Amino acid sequence: MGLRSKLSSADYARLRGYFDSHEPVMMGGLGVSALRQPERKYETPEWMNSDIKVTEFIQMQFPKAGKYGSDCRCDPCSSPQDRLDRSVCECRWCHDTTLAAKFAVVIVHWFRNKCTDTTVEFEFRWKPGTCGSIVQRIRWIIDGKRQDGTARTGNPRGRPKKAKQDQVDSSVQLVGSTAAIN
Ligand SMILES: [Zn+2]
Ligand SMILES: [Zn+2]
């Protein structure tokens, strides 16, 4: 499933059709207004409309995203050319890559296009609650706090990074990519 900057009206029609005809849980009320919340109280920061700024934001949070660890033995890292599913791996490189992709999805669909949590989770086949928890993490960061919700200390986290260990995978782009995300 690809990352798109916009959901077309055809996408909405498809979603609506799916829910109406195949999903009993959604019967009796999932119209366009339920799919989007244009009147949402939360005001999306202006910078989120810029793909460049969004990419910078995500790269700052996940410096290992889109890279592979040369000292890592996991399958996706040891054979990046095979395009193995990184979302099933918990190594730092794969974890960062998967989470960065989720951040991108949530910023584009939830923050920018004002899609509902359910719509995003449906489209990307995420577990219920995934979208909300990522929205919360992003809002914590925006509020000037760390991702775990504790206050900033002002000190950089972790050891200084060794850039040489990371192999850049130029085929992975955070925004506008077609990478599969789960
Ligand atoms: Zn790895
Ligand atoms: Zn891995």
How do you describe this structure in short?
The protein has about 180 residues and is mainly α. It is about 40% helix and about 5% strand. One zinc ion binds near residues 77, 91 and 94.
Describe, in plain words, how this protein is organized in 3D.
With 182 residues, this protein is mainly α. The protein has two domains: 8-38; 46-150, no CATH class. Helix content is 41%, strand content 3%. It is built from seven helices and two strands, in the order αααβααααβ. Strands 1-2 form a two-stranded antiparallel sheet. Helix 3 packs antiparallel against helix 5 and helix 5 packs across helix 7. It is globular and about 45 Å long. The model is unreliable at 1-34 and 169-182 (pLDDT under 50).
**Terminal Cα separation, in Å?**
9 Å
Order of helices and strands: HHHEHHHHE
Strand content: under 5%
Assembly context of the chains: single chain
Could you name the ranges where pLDDT drops below 50 across 5 or more consecutive residues? 1-34, 169-182
The molecules bound to the chains, other than polymers, are: zinc ion
Task: List strands and helices in order, with pairings.
Elements: H1 9-22, H2 32-35, H3 51-61, E1 67-69, H4 75-78, H5 92-112, H6 117-124, H7 130-142, E2 166-168
Antiparallel strand pairs: 1-2
The structure holds zinc ion (2 copies).
Residues 69, 72, 74, 76-77, 89, 91, 93-94 line the site of one zinc ion.
